[in-house]
Amino acid sequence: MTGGTVLDTRALNRATLARQLLLDRSDLPPLDAVAHLGGMQAQEPQEPFLGLWSRLRDFDPGVLSDLLVRRRVVRTHLMRRTVHLVTTEDVLARRSRHDAMLRQRARAAHRRELEDVDLDELAAAGREVMADGEPRTMAELVRAVAHRWPDAPPRALGELLVAALIPMAQLPPRGLWRTRAGVRNLPIAVWLGRDIDPPAPEGTDPVGAAMARGYLAAFGPAATADLRAWSGLAGLPAAVAAIRDELVSFRDERGRVLWDLPDAPRPDADTPAPVRFLPAFDNAILGYDDRTRIIDDAHRGLSVAGARVVLVDGRVTATWTVERDGGARDDPGTVTVTPLRRLSPAEREEVLGEGRNLAVFLSDGAADRVRVATDPA
Questions:
Q1: How far is Cα of residue 140 from the mean position of the Cα atoms in its chain?
Q2: Parallel, antiparallel or unpaired: strands 334-339 and 370-372
Q3: Which of 76, 130, 295, 343 could form a disulfide with 347 if both were Cys (CB 3.0 to 4.6 A apart)?
Q4: What DSSP assignment string belongs to 28-81?
């Protein structure tokens, strides 16, 4: 145990970049990268492709699409009740552990609207409809059960059914590279041909312990509050306590205890960090309660507003968009970067270089246009 050692913000930043495959691009296959990252935030369907492009060497988006079609990865509501792209093994192992949280959050969002709805009855009605094995949109599922709860808002019923009460997979073509498609749902057990793992016996939490280990491998060193912010799950401090003998501890500059795996990378704070373009809602930012290791508090709102951001020297320093010249959908567009602070000439050149690489990826080599807007005053 090394609980007296203090890791400053820059040291935590470099550890985060290393764990998140953002310090050096990795040679991991996409499936292994998704597993290592514990899943990828995916409510915006194209964003996982951008996240893996920034993390993997020679990333081919067709490989990730193929994994989705072959049911090796799944789009589902999981951590924080948001849509994530996770491996088949992880969704089968973890979904039961998330059940109570998903129900609580979905019910809390519609408490007054659904106060007279029995969740078990609603779940049973939804499963009965889905028993025919036919994919359905949320609206189609709600229309089939709404007569039993005529006073309940359809959207509230639907969100409970597809995001909490029935473990659902969002089927391709939703989530395929460069594909626009609505959400069609099918129970995970039907889509994968396997039931999700049952809950662990009372008083045990092997899934929580495995998630804690995996989280620290991809996000550590971190406090238990950070683990909860990433997962949305209560009770994980007990899971960390159960594996404490496996861990080392540090403190941050606020005095919080940070847990970590003994052999996980903790690079020197002076390790150079390359420019990286991150997608919307990337877990490298959202996966912490205290996000100051990677984003200033003044810009914290960007991480929940869906802004795509640029890391310069390891920190959120700009946002980026793709502007379509003339508005044509088939135009490759220009990667446009808007700095949040003044960039040095060297930083601006590095942003332009990585921006050109991103433009080439997004256009299949048809364009490399990038523009960096004027620094803020």
A1: 27
A2: parallel
A3: 343
A4: --HHHHHHHTT-EE-SSTTHHHHHHHTTBTT--HHHHHHHHHTTSEEEEE-GGG
